Automatic annotation (TrEMBL), chain A:
Name of the protein described by the UniProt record: U3 small nucleolar RNA-associated protein 11
Superkingdom: Eukaryota
Biological process according to GO: rRNA processing
InterPro entries: SSU_processome_Utp11
TrEMBL record, chain B:
Protein name: rRNA 2'-O-methyltransferase fibrillarin
Gene3D superfamilies: Phosphorylase Kinase, domain 1, Vaccinia Virus protein VP39
Substrates-to-products reaction catalysed: L-glutaminyl-[histone H2A] + S-adenosyl-L-methionine = N(5)-methyl-L-glutaminyl-[histone H2A] + S-adenosyl-L-homocysteine + H(+)
PANTHER family per UniProt: FIBRILLARIN, RRNA 2-O-METHYLTRANSFERASE FIBRILLARIN
Keyword field: Methyltransferase, Nucleus, Ribonucleoprotein, RNA-binding, rRNA processing, S-adenosyl-L-methionine, Transferase
Family: Belongs to the methyltransferase superfamily. Fibrillarin family.
Organism: Ignelater luminosus
One example GO MF annotation: rRNA methyltransferase activity
A GO biological-process term: box C/D sno(s)RNA 3'-end processing
InterPro entries assigned to the protein according to its UniProt record, in alphabetical order: Fibrillarin (IPR000692), Fibrillarin_CS (IPR020813), SAM-dependent_MTases_sf (IPR029063)
Length: 238, 225
């Protein structure tokens, strides 16, 4: 008969919800149907949860063992986590982090000094590097681009007579040089890794700073080869 | 036993002394005399990076006169003074007093360097010190670098003399593409009678740097031929 009910209501006047009358103002805002629905669903959810928990408590096997029981206890019918004492105070943790950072900084400076020292004697002139430079010749007064000079030099180098050299010594030296280049490559890589670690620790330290009244927002996620990027809100200093 | 070095060197003008802690290499030549070379680090010097990159000409033969703008502490200047030799001259201009002090110390040992602590934007302030030069080298890293080189060229560079400019793209326009910056600098030079001949970028020693070599007011060509 619900169809009939709907059709009978079709010509009915729709009553709009009224607000709280003036003389009942002291009772606060008048609850509307929308609000009532929210309150009712919340109430029912809670009732259902309580019912479920009660049921579980009744069904519980008192002889059952869980590992979590080692670190927790029931006191007067209430469940408590056993409190473990913190090994380090926040101040101590901060201090350790500072020391870590200082150590990383030290290692990084050592590494960059060593790189500099190696680069001073290894000028990459005998290495085929992947990064090619660009060499442009500008045409003089509508002439064609002139690239002869370089070719002439190469020709000269191909034909020039070299003085007598100790081939054995040359071989040994080139072997040593190769090892030095390998070392340089490793050091450059290590320095890069250290710089990432340094940035990550630094960021973590800044995030834990108690002076942050507004939480900084993360702009970029951190990766293996780059630290995360955070943005702090500008705070006016007096 | 040889040392496993792979380095650019210059013949030391003042044997037995170094300038900025660089390595020195002594070699006996055919006559049994000892000659000393100094290692020229391309990671610190744009000119050395350009040479190792394969630039055709730097126009600083022995005995030439060079005006060096932006000399800083005189590390590269000392190598240029090695290259031009005792017959040549290097006028080294630097504005900062702090690095100027180091420059003067370098010049004390090397008599072919004339240190000038002055702003390169105002060449009339040091015009009484500098004669006509064969080549201008500029490493000033200023947005108006082309103009600085041009006014110095108008004052001191001989007709048909050469210029060598190192351009740092981020110093001129940090937002534009480096290639575009280099091209615009070349345009500016051309407007000031400085004719660029070649341009080389400084990878792998420096990022977004270029060295431009060119000629100033070349003599007109004979039309009969």
């Amino acid at each position: 008969m619900s169809v009939w009910k709907k059709t009978s209501k079709l010509n009915q006047k729709t009553h709009r919800e009224r607000h709280q009358p003036e003389d009942r103002k002291h009772l606060g805002l008048l609850e509307k149907h929308k609000d009532y629905v929210k309150r009712a669903t919340d109430y029912n959810e809670k009732k259902e949860t309580l019912r479920l928990l009660q049921k579980r408590a009744l069904n519980k096997n008192p002889d059952e063992f869980y590992y979590h029981m080692i670190n927790s206890k029931i006191d007067k019918g209430r469940h408590h986590e056993r409190e473990t004492e913190q090994e380090d105070t926040p101040e101590q943790i901060q201090l350790m982090r500072t020391q870590d950072l200082k150590y990383i900084n030290l290692k990084r400076t050592q590494e960059s000094k060593k790189i500099e020292r190696l680069q001073a004697q290894l000028h990459l002139s005998s290495v085929n590097h992947q990064v090619k430079n660009k060499h442009i010749y500008f045409p003089k007064n509508h002439e064609k681009v002139d690239q002869k000079n370089g070719a002439q030099d190469l020709e000269f180098l191909a034909n020039v007579e070299l003085p007598d050299v100790d081939v054995e010594a040359l071989k040994e030296v080139s072997k040593k040089r190769k090892h030095m280049y390998i070392e340089l490559g490793k050091r450059v890589k290590r320095e890069k890794e250290l710089s990432v670690i340094q940035q990550k620790i630094q960021i973590k330290k800044h995030l834990e700073n108690k002076k942050n009244t507004l939480k900084p927002t993360r702009v970029k996620k951190g990766y293996k080869d780059s630290a995360p990027v955070y943005k702090w809100k500008y705070e006016r200093k007096r | 036993m040889g040392k496993p070095e792979d380095a650019l060197v210059t013949l030391n003008l003042v044997p037995g002394s170094e300038v900025y802690g660089e390595k020195r290499i002594s070699v006996e030549n055919d006559g049994g005399e000892k000659v000393e070379y100094r290692v020229w680090n391309p990671f610190r010097s744009k000119l050395a990076a350009a040479i190792l990159g394969g630039v055709d000409q730097i126009h600083m033969p022995p005995g030439s006169k060079v005006l060096y703008l932006g000399a800083a502490s005189g590390t590269t200047v000392s190598h240029v003074s090695d290259v031009v030799g005792p017959e040549g001259l290097v006028y080294a201009v630097e504005f900062s007093h702090r690095s100027g002090r180091d420059l003067i110390n370098v010049a004390k040992k090397r008599t072919n360097i004339i240190p000038i602590i002055e702003d390169a934007r105002h060449p009339h302030k040091y015009r009484m010190l500098v004669g006509i030069v064969d080549t201008i080298f500029a490493d000033v890293a200023q947005p108006d670098q082309a103009r600085i080189v041009a006014i110095n060229a108008h004052h001191f560079l001989k007709n048909g003399g050469h210029f060598v400019i190192s351009i740092k793209a981020s110093c001129i326009d940090s937002t534009a593409q480096p290639e575009a910056v280099f091209a615009s600098e070349v345009k500016k030079l051309q407007a000031d009678k400085l004719k660029p001949q070649e341009q080389i970028t400084l990878e792998p020693y420096e990022r977004d740097h270029a060295v431009v070599v060119g000629v100033y007011r070349p003599p007109p060509k004979q039309q009969a031929q």
